Amino acid sequence: MIKERLQSIYKELPSDVTLVAVSKFHPVERLMEAYEAGQRIFAESRPQELAQKIPQMPADVQWHFIGHLQTNKLKLVLPYVTLVQSVDSLHLLETISAWAVANARVIDILLELHLGAEETKQGFTEEEIMTLCHSAHSSVRIRGLMGMATNTDDMAVVERDFMRIEALFNRIKAMGLDGFDTLSIGMSGDWPVAVKHGATMVRIGTDIFGPREY
Ligand SMILES: *Cc1c(COP(=O)(O)O)cnc(C)c1O
Fold first, then answer.
1. Ligand 1 centre from 204 Cα, in Å?
2. For site-directed labelling of 143, which of 36, 96, 109, 199 has its Cα 20 to 30 A away?
3. 206: which DSSP letter?
4. In angstroms, what CA-CA distances link 54 with 36, 64, 74, 109, 164?
5. CA 31-37-43 angle, 5° bins
6. Mean pLDDT of residues grouped by 10 in the chain (214 residues)?
7. Does ligand 1 come within 6 angstroms of the Cβ of 6?
8. Beta strands of 60-106 (E only): which ranges?
């Protein structure tokens, strides 16, 4: 089932768009089914859950972090992930930078744009992102932007959200920021729209694994 769902996504997804399998709230046996179907990039949203799953999965899995990251949990996450997609505050960015310097690492991150209509959604404004992209952050590489569209069935609203983040992404890219190449937009339900609007990375959970289990 997972294998079939993955294969149909692989078939539809342009080859230059990276599929991130969002495995939060699914047991490791389900992740292994995806692994056996060829999936290698997985994303989790809770530090504890990530830390539990990593030793149970093959070593060639790449992990992304996509949830709200509290600064007292960095050491559970940063040593093990190849990308933190959900940097949503200056405090978090500065703390990641300090950790990276202290541990002689370079950490790849995406800045999260507050995109949807929901007030609760975390993230920066466009202006804040422009400012951050103009300043230096030791040992942190800003690889791109992440955003979640408004949670609605109205695809015109979703499309407007994606066009906004696409425009910001293209503006920053035109500045020639080193390594800035990733636009992470699109989840189950809206990823084909995201691909139409320049997604280089999609984050899909439910369409691969079914409803979350716990
Ligand atoms: C859970 C989550 C997803 C995946 O959502 P689905 O609707 O299950 O595809 C994508 N991005 C983020 C940031 C998430 O938290």
1. 6
2. 36
3. H
4. 16, 11, 15, 19, 35
5. 40
6. 97 98 97 98 98 98 97 97 97 98 98 87 92 95 97 95 98 95 97 98 98 80
7. no
8. 62-65, 83-87
